[in-house]
Structures are given as C-alpha cells and as structure tokens.
Amino acid sequence: MPVITFFNTLGRSMEEFKPLVPGKVGFYGCGPTVYNYAHIGNLRTYVFEDILVRSLRRFGLDVTHVMNITDVGHLSGDDDSGEDKMLRSAKERGQSVLQIASYYTDAFFADTERLGIARPDVVCKATEHVQDMIRLIRRIEAGGYTYSAGGNLYFDVSKFPRYGELANLRLEELKAGARIEVDENKKNPQDFVLWFTKSKFENQALIWDSPWGRGYPGWHVECSAMSMKYLGESFDIHAGGVDHIPVHHTNEIAQSEAATGKPWVRYWLHAEFLVMDKGKMSKSKGNFITLQNLLDGGFEALDYRYFCLGGHYRSQLSFSDDAMAQARASRKAMLEKFLDLRTHAGTAEVPNRSRLHAGVLARLERFDKLLAEDLAVPRALAELWGLLKDPSLPPADVVAAALDMDTVLGIGLAGARREEKSLSDEERSKIQALVDRRTEAKKAKNWAEADALRQELKDLGIVLEDGPRGTVWKQLKA
Ligand code: AMP
Ligand code: ZN
C-alpha cells in the first residue's frame, strides 16, 4: 500500500492519512436534499467521493461509507434563513413532502448508478433518525451550549471556543462586519437552530414531539447524529462541497464536539465547484443542468464521469458544451484503443498482477501512487492513456492493467463493446477467400499456413469456429 496523503481542510495542509483503526475507514459524505433533481455540480462532488472510496478500497482499506438523505429541516439559506426547501417543493408540485422526498431520492440513486457511483454502505434518511437527533441535542444542552429563544433551541457559538476553526472564521471580525441579522432571536449571527418549534412556516408537514416542544430538527444536527450513529463518535473522513465549509460543516463540528467532548472528524476533504460561464448552478434557483439533460443531448452518463476525471477535485471545473463534447470524444477514443488491444490480446487469459510485464507493472505502481497523493485523478487518467498508447508493451498485460485501473476510474472499459461494423461485399469476399485458403491448408495438413491465415483473419477482426459442417466466421466483438 502506498503512503496516502490528503489535503485536510482542517489545518489547510497535506497530511498523511492514518485511519483511527488500522485497516478500517469510517467515511461520511453529506447526501442530497431531496426536493429536486441533483444537478451535475452536485454529481461532480459525488463522483469525487466515489473515487475516494474506490481508491481507499484499492489500497486494501475496509471502508464504511455513510450518506444521509436530507428530507427535513433544510432551509434555503444554510444559516436558517429563507424557506423550507422540501415544503416549498411539495407545495409547488401539489404533493406531500414524503412523496417529493421519495421521488427525488430514487431519481438521485438512478443518476449515481448511471455514473457508476457505488452505493454507500449506509444510506440514512433524516426523518427516520429524529430520535437520534433529539438524544444528541439533549447532550449538547446538558453541556450548557444552548439557549431557547422565540420558541427555538439555538446553539450558542460563543460557548465553543474552537468555533470556525475549519473555515478560519474569526468571530470578532464577523461580529464587527456589517451584516443584516435575519433572525432576531440569535445572540450571535453564527448561532444556529438545533430544534425549531415556532416555525415561521405555517403547516409544517413533518413535526415530532421533543423536550423543547413539537417541532423539527435543524439541518446541521442530522449529519452529526447520523454519522456518529453509524461510524462512532470519532471517525476518519468527512467530505462534501466547498460551500459547506463556512456554515454547515463548521456547525456540525461545533455541535458534535460539544456533545461528546472528543475530536470528531480527523480529515476533512472538500470538492471545489463545477462552474458554468453563466454563473453558479443552483438547485434552488432552478438554473441547472441535470444528468438527464446530458443524456437527452446524446451523451452517455460515463462521458460525464470522464469529464469530471479531467479536473482535480480541489480545482474548479468549468462546464461547457464544448468541454463535454471533448470528453465524449476522448472517452470514445479510449474505448476504441482498449478494444483494439483486446482484439490483439486475443481471448487468452489476462495475466494477474504478479505476472505482469515489468513496464506495465511500473505504470500500475505510478497510477497507485498518483491516487495516493491527494487523488491526482487527472494524472492517473493520463497514466492510463500512456499505458494504452505504449506500443512496446504486450497487449494482454496492458488490457489487464487497464481493467485494473478502471476499477477506480470507472470509465466503462470492462463493458466496452465494439459495434459490429457493416462489411462491404468486397470485404466479405476477401474474408471468405482467406477462410477457404485456410480450409485447403488444413486439408493439406499444412498447419503453419492454416495458423498464419487464422492470425491474418484475427487481425481483420474475424474469428473462426470450426464445426462439423465446416468453418464459419464472424466478427470479433471485443
Ligand atoms: P445539496 O443537495 O444542495 O445539499 O448538495 C449536495 C452536494 O453537492 C453538497 O456536497 C454540495 O456541497 C455539493 N454542491 C453543490 N453545488 C455544487 C457545484 N456547483 N459543484 C460541485 N458540488 C456542488
Ligand atoms: Zn452534512
């Protein structure tokens, strides 16, 4: 296993990754708020998380991947301002909140499946874990970190000295900065709601009894409660998009560590945004592109995955029609190159790693090293290209190594099929003439010539099947 390093947002530096329990990794990634389709920006973050999980597993680590589904409590402003996202969507579509949640959860997993994203080991819905949240809030309250105001229970950030460490926030500066306070109940603008009772929304659809009155949990507390339920009070990695650093993840840390008194998450990994020339893609504003839009435009889902692999997760990635078309063309070229090599490798068993050609093995080792260096995926992809294009390497070994690399990259090499090319009459008679010559050679027991002709046909993409009624030929589907 190579040395694994990650850029930890907490502390802003590269750090060697050492799991809390050797050989095991607890990983939590914030899941979608299911009031609308995921946009391709959200999906970029999930592709990154998938590569992370697959890389860790490749290095022999036993990963438990937990993802929440936010189906309650997320307001349009992460700082408790605005409307309830689920409720607004339900009203607009004339359905119940749970119907909306179920529809968009299914749509989310249909998208992630098409993108080859492995399903997390645990998928947990906020509405099914409200008792866990209530228990956690009671612990936070018992530690003296909360206050009630206007019917809601707030987390008091001034009681948690390390508040804002993840985002390098300085509370004093924030306080001094001109900022219009949206919630007059808050003592500090950064205070956040743990439990809502006096909702500003009439007819809140989903409410629960709690020690603080009938109401519903704040958004941030769900991730703390569910991650700890499935991964323990301290775990290895938490990931999400960069937008979550200053509020959501900052608040998750404060309330989790306030409740347990222990360090919570050890490595924080954040994916930069997918950006468009037309500005920020936003689910709540409705100006976004979905995976289905791309499929309707003639792309394959894995073309989008390939597009994502072209940028390092910590850099912004610019989406445009041209860039997407380029990704499709590159992926197609890669599949074709791979299929050619597979044809040349024949149907022989591909060698296992221990018996690979030294040049191929060296490339595989470099590939692993690149992944281990904070997921240098664009360079790992270039390594795969280098492998496929190196004429000095034996095709069967290249095929084996490429398939191995693709277990992380997920471009679809294993399932690649060449469409049967339509043959002209001229090509057909040329093939038939070669087949007949081989039959003659066999009759004359001229095995060397028969074999040479079989090889010549194979190079043309034709395979032969000798049967009781003579020899039939067909195109080789790689
Ligand atoms: P949400 O469903 O809004 O909670 O977002 C789901 C995930 O997508 C979160 O991890 C966000 O940080 C991430 N995200 C949101 N917008 C973008 C974007 N434009 N590019 C990449 N990731 C994003
Ligand atoms: Zn979260």
From TrEMBL:
Q: Report the gene name.
A: cysS_5
Q: What organism is this sequence from?
A: bioreactor metagenome
Family matches, as InterPro entries: Cys-tRNA-ligase (IPR015803), Cys-tRNA/MSH_ligase (IPR024909), CysS_C (IPR056411), Rossmann-like_a/b/a_fold (IPR014729), tRNA-synt_1_cat_dom (IPR032678), tRNAsynth_Ia_anticodon-bd (IPR009080)
| Gene Ontology molecular function terms on file | ATP binding; cysteine-tRNA ligase activity; metal ion binding
Cellular component terms (Gene Ontology): cytosol
UniProt keywords (A-Z) are: Aminoacyl-tRNA synthetase, ATP-binding, Ligase, Metal-binding, Nucleotide-binding, Protein biosynthesis, Zinc
Domain tRNA synthetases class I catalytic spans what residues? 17-328
**Protein name, UniProt field:** Cysteine--tRNA ligase
**Chain ranges of the Cysteinyl-tRNA ligase anticodon binding domain:** 430-473
Q: Name one Pfam family in it.
A: CysS_C
- For the keyword Ligase, the answer is yes
